[in-house]
Amino acid sequence: MHYFPLFADLKSRPVLVVGGGSVAARKVNLLLQANAEIRIVAQKLNLELTTLEAQGKVFWLAKHFSAEQLKSVFLVIAATNDEQLNQRVFRLAESQHKLVNVVDDQPHCSFIFPSIIDRGSLQVAISSAGRAPVLARLLREKLEALLPQHLGKIAEISGKWRDKVKQRLHSVTERRRFWETLFSGRFVNLVKNQQIELAEEELARQLENDYQGGVVSLVGAGPGDAGLLTLKGLQEIQQADVVLYDALVSDEILGLIRRDADRIFVGKRAQRQYVAQEDTNQLLVKLARQGKRVVRLKGGDPFVFGRGGEELETLVENRIPFSVVPGITAGIGATAYAGIPLTHRDYAQSAVFVTGHRKADASDIEWQTLARSHQTLVIYMGTLKASFIAEQLQQHGRDSNTPLAVISQGTQLTQTTLVGRLKNLAELAKNAPTPALIVVGEVVELHHKLAWFGEDKQRQKRPHFTLDSLAIGQVA
Ligand code: SAH
Predict the structure, then answer these.
(1) Distance, CA 320 to ligand 1 centroid (Å)?
(2) From the CB of 381, is ligand 1 less than 6 Å away?
(3) Which of 362, 387, 418, 463 could cross-link to 426 by cystine, CB 3.0-4.6 Å?
(4) Start and end of every Siroheme synthase central domain (predicted)?
(5) Which residue has the higher pLDDT, 205 or 37?
(6) Which of 147, 153, 161, 148 is nearest to 120 (CA)?
(7) Is the dihedral of CA 96, 102, 107, 111 positive or negative?
C-alpha cells in the first residue's frame, strides 16, 4: 500500500497554508468544508482569499514563512509559485513531523489529497497514488453518478438510531442483518423521496420486526438512447427487484437493469402478447405487497401519453408508496436528434403535444387551435390516422405546404426522418417504421441545416452506453 487512507477530523484544528494565489485558494476552500482553522502565510492574498479573510473565515498570519509557524498546526500546505520556498516548507515540516503537501509536487508530499465524493456523513475518497489523477477523477465521475445524493441522509439517520439498535439487538450478527435488510428495502426509498418521518417510522417498525411492504417507482426511460436515461432512473433500475416494462423501452436500456432482477413485459404491441392496463395496475399492487422494490419502466416520460397517472391512482387506492422519475419524452428527444427545434424565434412561438389516437372518436379535438400557423404540432401515435389528421389540419386552415417530418425510432441507432409537406403526410406516415412521431410546422425547415444524428454520419461514432462501460475496471 503506497499511501494509507485516513479520514481526518480537522474541525477547529489549525492548518498552515503557505501561498495566497488561486492554487492556495482551491485548497483553502476544500479545507474550509471540513471547518479547519486556516492560517495563511503569503506576501499578498488574491481577491478570493481577501474576501474570506474579511469574512473572518481565514486568518492571515504573516507575510513571510518561518519555522516557528509550524509548531502548533496539524497539516501544512505549500502552494506558492516559489519552488525553493515550497521545498523549504516541506523540509522544515518534515523535520517537525508535520504532515505536509506541496501542491502538484508529489515527491514533496507526506500526504496527498484524494478525489472526494461527498454525501454528508458518507464519503468516498479515491487516489491513484498520484500516478494517474485523471483516471481517479474519471472514476470519481462514474461513482458520483452511481451514488445517489440521499446516501448521506441514510447514514445520518442510521447514526442517530445506532444506540437504540444496539440496545434492542444484542449480537453483532443480528445487528448486521438488521442494517442489511433496512438498507435494501423500503426505508431507502422513503429517504430518497425525502419522506424522512416515514423512513424513521419504517426503521422503528423493522426494529420491532413488523412486516413491511414494497414500493413502486414509475420511471421514464426516454425515447431509446440509453444515454438519455436520467441518473435517478438508472439508480432505480439498478436497485429494483422487479421491472415491468413496455414495448417502447429500448433493448439498450433493458440491458442496464440489475441482472438478477425479474423482468416482466407488459406491453401493448399487437404482434406481442397483450397485457390489459387493469392487469398491469393489479400486478404492481401485488408485487409491492410482496415487499418488492418494483420499477414500472415506460418509454419517454411516464406522464406524457403514458398512462402513468392511471397506474398511480391504483397505487394510491391501495396505499402503496410510490415515486415518479420523469423521462425525456419522444417529442423532446426525437426532435432534438432530428435537428428540429420545437420553437424558434423566426418559425414557431409555441409547441403543442397532441395524441393522434383517442379513446373515443376525435370529434372533440379543437382542430382550429391545432391548425394555427407558427406553432409546432407534435403528434404522438398519429401514423395510423395520418390521412385524417392531414385533412383536418388543412380544412381548418393550415397551409398544405407546411413542412412536416415523420421521425421513426427517434434517438435510436435506427432513427430515420422523413420530411415532406402537410399534403403528403399520409404517404410519409405509411412508409415510416414505428414508433413514429409526426412534427408539423415551419421549424421542420431547420432539419436540413441542423440534422446531426445521421443514419450514416453518426451511427458508427456514437459511444455505446452499457453497464459494463460503467464498471470500475474499464474506466481506463
Ligand atoms: N410516454 C411516451 C409516449 C407514449 S405514446 C413519451 O413520453 O415519449 C407512444 C407514441 O410515442 C408513439 O406512437 C410515437 O408517436 C411516440 N414515440 C415514442 N417513442 C418514440 C421514438 N423513439 N421515436 C419516435 N416516436 C416515439
Answers:
(1) 28
(2) yes
(3) 387
(4) 119-145
(5) 37
(6) 153
(7) positive
Cell of 379: 403528434
The mean pLDDT of 2-6, rounded to a whole number, is 91
> How far, in Å, CA of 306 to CA of 428, rounded?
25
pLDDT single digits (tens) 416-448 = 999 999 999 999 999 899 999 999 999 999 999
Return the residue whose CA atom lies nearest to atom 5 of ligand 1. Answer: 305
Give the pLDDT confidence score for residue 167 in this predicted structure.
Answer: 85
Is 433 known to sit in a ligand binding site? no
Measured from the CB, is residue 233 less than 6 Å from ligand 1? no
> Of all protein residues, whose CA lies closest to atom 18 belonging to ligand 1?
330
Instruction: Decide: 347 in ligand 1 pocket, CB within 6 A.
Output: no
Q: Which strand (E) or helix (H) includes residue 92? A: helix 83-95
381 has binding-site annotation: yes
The answer to whether the Cα torsion of 242, 247, 251, 252 is positive or negative is negative
User: How would residue 196 be classed by pLDDT, with cut points 50, 70 and 90?
Assistant: very high
**Active-site residue list:** 246, 268
The residue nearest atom 24 of ligand 1, judged by CA position, is 436
Q: How far is the CA of 83 from the centre of ligand 1 (A)?
A: 61
365-417-453 Cα angle (round to 5): 125
pLDDT tens per residue, range 87-124: 999 999 999 999 999 999 999 999 999 988 888 889 99
Judge whether 348 and 321 are in contact, CB under 8 Å. Answer: no
Kindly give the distance from the C-alpha atom of residue 464 to the centroid of ligand 1, in angstroms, as a whole number.
22
For the CA atoms of 468, 470, 473, 476, the dihedral, rounded to the nearest 10 degrees, stands at 110
Strand intervals (E) in 109-185: 115-119, 122-126
Kindly give the residue spans of alpha helices, DSSP state H, lying in 290-397.
Answer: 308-317, 330-337, 367-370, 386-395
Confidence band (pLDDT; 50, 70, 90) for 273? low
Measured distance CA(421)–CA(394) in Å, rounded: 11
